[in-house]
Design goal:
Length: 503
């Protein structure tokens, strides 16, 4: 009888459920979007109950498409948008507030105060993270400080905190009836509350951020042979299935790309853009604006670490062209438009809508469209949007090369935007290195499945996962170094125009 591993992929704009066979091939999937809520400028929220409802719906739809039963699934893995912060009542299961999304900038004042008070270096040494609105810890503090009665509930043990993985695993494994309140080391490493060396919540950081320990989930391995819990018979799977894999989405993509050796890197093109470089068991603290993060931890083995370059706006920039400006009707239209012009007409779009992430970490920055003349039309702007994704990636790659000292010559890519062949050629041109897309581009879901499957022995070892990885297409640079340097110099100039916008 065929057996499968399932992966719940709770992303920033949608949730999907995928089934994989032993070859890492997709058997069936379903995907559904959830609302993006913008209460104020710079604020971004999601409804946790809507995400849970979408999760149940995609599971049911996928099982129906595959025509299988819960008994055919040997394990479940979860991957998720990281840093997005959920607080909920442990007794009722009701969220205390909408989830505050990783893109949200409402904690800017708190973060600037931490920097002014001289805590940035201490926080960075312990967590590998700069003090930034990106991370979960300041979001927890904002909720506790701004919602009446919430801090008292937290201190009394009535509230639970989690990133989206914790919220879903708690609901999957029983919710108010004994649901497992856990997270994995990769998600915990994005809170600004976990010590990279101890892999545990840090008391000094909890005090500094004003976060009661009673709120926090237990930190577990990314692939856990002891299981986080099992699904309920009354739940969306209608059967008891081990839930035993969890990874933040970018770490999941790294596992899905089988970047298991130090020096191997991948770049994921999703809502944002995220490049991770495996540094093995060594904690490498960046000198060039990158994050140090946990890459994964398999069972009782030592944690594996990574350097990461995080870009807030990639696919979300194309979504902005569609939803906010109405320049396109669907994302695929950008490829047609961009191909219709020889270049961007001298214009640059820097999508610093939530500030600039790596390597700048400038929360005062805001988006700009510069270099406009009457010659520029919507095709040039569409091309500039795609170039922005590639230039941001170039800045991260340069920082990574500086930190590791060994220039990357090949970049594995994944995520929805890699379906745009023109974008991938543009990326190879702007980087000057080869870009490789695997046959299974949905490596985020695949990585979560791998973590769960390893925990139950469905895959015996990492080499069996490597055997599944196959090249779909490879791109090499088609422009000369002088053209590449000229375009990048214009980009760097445009970036400076985003600085100091927010007082």
């Amino acid at each position: 009888m065929a057996r499968f591993v399932g992966a719940i992929d709770a992303g920033t704009t949608s949730t999907r459920f995928m089934l994989f066979d032993a070859h890492g091939s997709i058997i069936a999937f379903d995907q559904r979007e959830h609302r993006q809520i913008f209460p104020q400028s710079g604020w971004v929220e999601h409804d946790p109950l809507e995400i849970w409802e979408r999760t149940r719906a995609v599971i049911g739809a996928t099982l129906a498409k595959a025509e299988i039963k819960a008994a055919d699934i040997v394990a479940i893995g979860v991957t998720n948008q990281r840093e997005t912060t959920v607080l909920w009542n442990r007794h009722t299961g009701e969220p205390a507030h909408n989830a505050i999304v990783w893109q949200d900038t409402r904690t800017d004042r708190l973060c600037r105060q931490l920097q002014t008070d001289g805590y940035a270096e201490r926080i960075y040494h312990k967590t590998g993270l700069p003090v930034a609105t990106y991370f979960s810890g300041p979001k927890i503090r904002w909720l506790l400080d701004n919602l009446p009665g919430l801090r008292a509930q937290a201190e009394a043990g009535d509230l639970l905190f989690g990133t989206v993985d914790s919220w879903l695993i708690w609901n999957l494994t029983g919710g108010t009836h004994g649901g497992a309140h856990v997270t994995d080391v990769t998600n915990a490493s994005r809170t600004m509350l976990m010590n990279l060396e101890t892999l545990d919540w840090d008391d000094e950081l909890l005090t500094l951020l004003g976060v009661p320990r009673a709120l926090l989930p237990t930190i577990r391995p990314s692939s856990d042979p002891h299981f986080y819990g099992t699904t309920l018979v009354s739940g969306p799977f209608s059967g008891e299935i081990p839930v035993c894999g969890a990874l933040g989405d970018q770490q999941a993509a790294t596992v899905g790309q089988t970047c298991f050796h130090p020096g191997e890197a991948k770049n994921t093109y999703g809502t944002g853009c995220f490049m991770l470089l495996n540094t093995g068991p060594t904690i490498v603290r960046s000198q060039n604006g990158l994050l140090t993060t946990v890459c994964y931890r398999l069972g009782d083995q030592p944690a594996v670490y990574a350097l990461e370059g995080s870009i807030a706006m990639a696919g979300a920039t194309v979504q902005w062209l569609r939803d906010n400006l109405g320049l396109i009707s669907h994302a695929g239209e950008t490829e047609t438009l961009a191909r219709s012009v020889a270049d961007s007409g001298g214009c640059y779009l820097v999508p610093a809508f939530s500030g600039l992430f790596a390597p700048y970490w400038r929360s005062d920055a805001r988006g700009v469209l510069v270099g406009l003349t009457r010659y520029v039309n919507r095709a040039h702007i569409a091309r500039a949007a795609l170039e922005a994704i590639c230039y941001q990636t170039r800045e991260v790659l340069d920082a990574m090369n500086a930190d590791c000292g060994v220039p990357l010559t090949v970049l594995k890519v994944d995520g929805g935007a890699t379906a745009n062949d023109f974008l991938m050629q543009l990326q190879a041109d702007i980087l000057g290195v080869d870009v490789i897309r695997p046959k299974v581009a949905e490596t985020t879901s695949l990585g979560a499945a791998y973590a769960a499957g390893l925990a139950v022995g469905f895959w015996p070892d990492l080499e069996s996962l490597r055997a599944n990885w196959q090249v779909d297409r490879q791109w090499g640079a088609q422009i000369d170094s002088a053209t590449r340097a000229h375009g990048f110099a214009g980009w760097k100039k445009a970036v400076t125009r985003t600085f100091d916008w927010v007082e």
